[in-house]
Amino acid sequence: MDKTRATLAEAVADIPDGASVMIGGFGGSGAPIELIHALIDRFAATGSPKNLTLINNNAGNGHVGLAALIEQGMVRKLICSFPRSADPRVFTQKYQAGEIELELVPQGTLAERIRAGGAGIPAFYTPTGFGTLLAEGKAIETFEGRSYVRERWLKADVALIKADVADPYGNLTYRMAARNFNPLMAMAAATTIVQARRIVAAGEIDPETVITPGIFVQYVVEVANPAQEEVLNRAGARYPEGEVA
Amino acid sequence: MDKTRATLAEAVADIPDGASVMIGGFGGSGAPIELIHALIDRFAATGSPKNLTLINNNAGNGHVGLAALIEQGMVRKLICSFPRSADPRVFTQKYQAGEIELELVPQGTLAERIRAGGAGIPAFYTPTGFGTLLAEGKAIETFEGRSYVRERWLKADVALIKADVADPYGNLTYRMAARNFNPLMAMAAATTIVQARRIVAAGEIDPETVITPGIFVQYVVEVANPAQEEVLNRAGARYPEGEVA
Amino acid sequence: MSEKLSNAQIAWRAAQDIADGAYVNLGIGFPEMVAQYQPPGRQAIFHTENGILGFGEAPPQGEEDWDMINAGKKAVTLNPGAAFFHHADSFAMVRGGHLDVAILGAYEVAENGDLANWSTGPKGVPAVGGAMDLVHGAKRVAVITEHVTKDGKPKLVKRCTLPLTGVGCVTRLYTSLAVIDIEGGHFVLREKLPSISLETLQSLTGAELKLDGPVADLIVPEL
Amino acid sequence: MSEKLSNAQIAWRAAQDIADGAYVNLGIGFPEMVAQYQPPGRQAIFHTENGILGFGEAPPQGEEDWDMINAGKKAVTLNPGAAFFHHADSFAMVRGGHLDVAILGAYEVAENGDLANWSTGPKGVPAVGGAMDLVHGAKRVAVITEHVTKDGKPKLVKRCTLPLTGVGCVTRLYTSLAVIDIEGGHFVLREKLPSISLETLQSLTGAELKLDGPVADLIVPEL
After folding, report:
1. Confidence of residue A245 (pLDDT cuts 50, 70, 90)
2. Which residue of C has its CA nearest to A91?
């Protein structure tokens, strides 16, 4: 059993057009920039994958990572809680031009829907959003006199995950608050593709400290010095490099 | 902020008659034996607490811990998935005499109901139990052509938890598979009382390895050399000591 | 209305009601200021949606670690006793009623406790973040706000006109002029600036200010 | 019926269908034997409900650690690459469809895939454990069982008479006489002991055995 893959290109080679893709991270923290850029490279070379539905907390920042994926025209729809950032122009322009669909979900509901997808819970009730625009059209139920909104699970074809340490079984740890949505998305996708800062031998991760057990992971690629979105943006980076959209 | 308490007696002093009490552990692994015995001591001295509703995966083994609590007549009702063990006589006799009520819940549903209680999810749907006796009287819903049972959250007044390491903020780690229901129950109880093998200073538990963040914990007591149910039972122990029921 | 509290002073007043050891979530932006004014001897534990309990001040510039940020994506540090967790556990804390207080900003607050603080209408890109979860999760939901808009219109209203964040969720308001509780579907005045008359305050408020006891002077230090 | 497979041989046969790297849950008792018969070169990863992935053999007697047990409360060891997790995450793995196969015992299995394996009726203390979760979670739910009861009555039946564990959940049976798939609401015979005739096998089975291709000989080593 060895889930490691030698290259990013190999790891993202099978994502089809029209796929739903969960992308870990909260802003730049925990965002798998290199996996995203590998997907952009594939699109540049082959025209695929396109018409993607992305699930992320945000909508990208600047012209790298998630924003670059949107900027390249690969994304049909975005499911997120907060499509704003220091520099949200890429998404904002596509959205205002009607070129990208937006499903806005409260952040805790987004997290719980993804967890439910991974845990085999097709629907659950939450107080969040009751009486607001974001509950329109959803079933309402009363328990002990309080009103709740019924929300559906969220699954995806693929998850792109940024981990800190991984082993060949796909066991993962994360770095500080870069954990955020990553462990949930790893559970909720049919194929979970991980970039890890370091891949160690099986047994080298203390079983007590594994955050994502390997059962949720299909592929692992080592990216020893991952880029941080905030650093790239402060340097005015774009992906593909030098390109001006 | 210091959630540590000097004695077990102090930690369990406020549990009232009729309380619902979640007790961590799976069999003897993760069972907070010393907290349970402190509760029995209090009952012996004061006649309280009684008429308890217990939530645990099992129904006790031998004549110590959970079984002793039942044997003392302190328990009105048990919510569990598997009321069998190497020596289940205490529960079996009370049950067959009609002296204790049993609510049988599939193990995964029990875990998820407790997690839902802690997470503010009043109800959820699960495929588990559909078409069986354990779904009788419950709402059924179809999603994508598959049938699911609606299950309610489970909360409690008190949780008794066995941890490995704790700090004064109530951050906890567990020992191997002794984790089991403990982190879930800590989330789902109004008052969570922890016995920890070791209490360390704030900051000594790596924030990456905290399993139960302190927000879910109210009291922590150090029990440096906790008894293991299996070991007590192999030695033929009873609690209170020497007593023959 | 010449005299009013600065944002720092509103934040200071809100901070006085936070008990030692309380678990607190502060909304992005203005509410984050509340953390600076904890009374001596008290230490709250701050929660951020993206998975930290027990974070501390911003690090010195140049020492940021962008994997250690708060919900506003600002770099933070850790206090002893901090913990990391994933987003579902983070919102279990929120939705499950484990936070003692959430302090949020507002566009409008209605006398029935309704809050509007996420959308100013159909224009622009909508964004909600964790606000809708926080208003239904924390044991106490407080709002800090200017008493009126920049145009002088009441932000405390009979019924919200903007899209709601939550229904009947706010229990206390700290404004630039007063401290007001929401009880039984009404604004109940608790404290006001000594320099403002009850009549003037009422005229700046979009629904009736009830009294059910003495109104204290709202006294706040220079900051 | 003189010849039949031993429990070890049934377990061996079931083990041959487990792929290298598969995630597997084995029910308490008899199904646990399957772990002993993994074909050379293949390594399954075993899941236990109480929060371990990647556990290994029992430790030597006297070296048990009672915080490292399986769902049957037997002491186990860890293989490299193991992980601990809590019960909700454990059943997320089960219910969420992440296990490749669950192998369970049975009182009765019906041709429509219904399974009864938790209760023999209203007498005694009922106990269910994780069986009801497993039957609706794993990608493939297989049963290992004697072909008939101790009294010689069929365990493979048209409709279950005992309380159900799950509806339409079983897809393959490994019995002491045969390997049978459940497809389209029918038992489909895949393999049988060479020494037993189709007629005899049918007479020991409570519902029709369909054929939709050649029936292979069920050949199992001495164990």
Report:
1. very low
2. C125
Write the pLDDT tens digit of every residue in C109-140: 999 999 999 998 888 899 999 999 999 989 99
For residues C67-71, average pLDDT: 97
| D85 contacts in chain A (CB < 8 Å) | 210, 213
pLDDT tens track for A72-102: 999 999 999 999 999 999 999 999 999 999 9
Q: In the prediction, which pLDDT does A1 show?
A: 83
CB contact under 8 A, B203 and C95: no
Please write down the long-range contacts of D32-36, taking CB distance under 8 Å and 24 or more positions apart.
D32/D70, D32/D72, D32/D74, D33/D7, D33/D8, D34/D103, D34/D144, D36/D8, D36/D11
Q: What is the pLDDT of residue C211?
A: 97
| Bridge partners of residue D141, in order along the sequence | D102
pLDDT digits (tens, 9 = 90+) for D108-158: 999 999 999 999 888 889 999 999 999 998 999 999 999 999 999 999 999
| Check: complex ipTM more than 0.90 | yes
C-alpha distances in Å from residue D216, one per residue of D88, D189, D204, D219: 42, 9, 19, 9
- Distance between terminal CA atoms of chain C? 20
Asked if the Cβ–Cβ distance from B119 to C92 is below 8 Å, we say yes
Contact partners for chain D, using 3 or more CB pairs closer than 8 A, are A, B
Please write the tens of the pLDDT for every residue from C71-119: 999 999 999 999 999 999 999 999 999 999 999 999 999 999 999 999 9
Contact D65, D73 (CB under 8 A): no
CA–CA dist C198, C218 (Å, integer): 13
Arithmetic mean of pLDDT over chain D: 96
Q: Which of B19, B149, B129, B153 is nearest to B77 (CA)?
A: B19
Let me know: does B167 contact B214? Beta carbons within 8 Å.
yes
Task: Select from C81, C94, C96 the Cβ nearest to the Cβ of B214.
Answer: C81
D32 catalytic residue (yes or no): no
- Give A169's contacts in chain D (Cβ within 8 Å): 45, 54, 81
Cβ contact (<8 Å) for C94 and B120? yes
> Which alpha helices (H) appear in chain C, and where do they start and end?
7-15, 87-95, 131-134, 198-203
Query: What gap in Å lies between CA B92 and CA B81, rounded to an integer?
Result: 14
**Distance between CA atoms of residues B51 and D139, nearest Å:** 43
Q: Are D52 and D70 in contact (CB under 8 A)?
A: yes
Quick one: average pLDDT of B132-159?
98
Helix (H, G, I), strand (E, B) or coil at A225: coil
What is the CATH T-level fold of the domain D7-217, as seen in this structure?
Answer: Glutaconate Coenzyme A-transferase (3.40.1080)
Alpha carbon distance A173, A164 (integer Å): 6
CATH fourth-level superfamily of A8-121+154-234 = Glutaconate Coenzyme A-transferase (3.40.1080.10)
